[in-house]
UniProtKB/TrEMBL annotation:
Keywords: DNA-binding, Transcription, Transcription regulation. InterPro entries: HTH_MarR-typ, MarR/SlyA-like, Tscrpt_reg_MarR-type_CS, WH-like_DNA-bd_sf, WH_DNA-bd_sf. It comes from Cohaesibacter marisflavi. This is DNA-binding transcriptional regulator, MarR family. It holds the Pfam family MarR_2. GO terms for biological process: response to stress. SMART domains: HTH_MARR. It comes from the Bacteria. Residues 23-155 form the HTH marR-type domain. One of its GO terms (molecular function) is DNA binding. Signal peptide: none annotated.
């Protein structure tokens, strides 16, 4: 394979920086924090040949036992096809049970099994420990400010779902910008 000769005017040799009008500190802090936040669960799940999609499904089925497939799709913002593959594995491996709806038999409701609850708790405990250890290094009022910051990062239309999962957020007061001020 031959290398294409590129005109030196087409090649950029300096990194993006604040000179480009963007503060990269927060972007990179979020990137690296997320990388490390999911590292332990990724390692645990890899032993089962599972990935992050399995983690998310396990998490939300355990947070809302009886959740419908439609509601789970709405939370995860993934396709039915993506969910079907992951869900099939979790059901076959006895981490999740699927039952028809009580009034609409076509509806599929998802419940964790004992095995699924234990795995979800094991994963959540290592993530909670990482969060608590980080908060321990900061002033006490930081926890509320951290919650407010993360909540503000969520698209406004997704916030009611987050509030319904976390009743402690009801007391959280966050400046709610109007939708027109958010960039798409």
């Amino acid at each position: 394979m031959t290398e294409k000769k590129v005109d030196s005017d087409e090649v950029i040799t300096h990194p993006m920086s604040e000179d480009d009008g963007i503060s990269f500190e927060m972007i990179e802090l979020l990137f690296f924090a997320y990388r490390d936040f999911v590292a332990d669960p990724d390692t645990m799940l890899a032993t089962l040949s599972y990935g992050r999609a399995h983690h998310r499904v396990l998490h939300f089925v355990n947070r809302r036992p009886g959740i419908t497939v439609a509601a789970l799709l709405d939370i995860l913002k993934i396709t039915k096809q993506s969910l079907a593959r992951v869900l099939k594995q979790l059901i076959e491996d006895d981490y999740i049970a699927q039952q028809p709806g009580e009034t609409d038999r076509r509806q599929r409701r998802l419940f964790p099994t004992v095995k699924g609850r234990e795995l979800a708790l094991e994963i959540s405990k290592c993530q909670a420990r990482r969060i608590e250890e980080a908060l321990q290094t900061l002033p006490p009022e930081t926890k509320k400010a951290s919650k407010a910051f993360l909540y503000a990062m969520i698209e406004p239309q997704g916030r009611p779902t987050v509030r319904s999962l976390n009743h402690g957020l009801e007391a959280l007061t966050v400046f709610e910008p109007d939708d027109s001020s958010r960039r798409k």
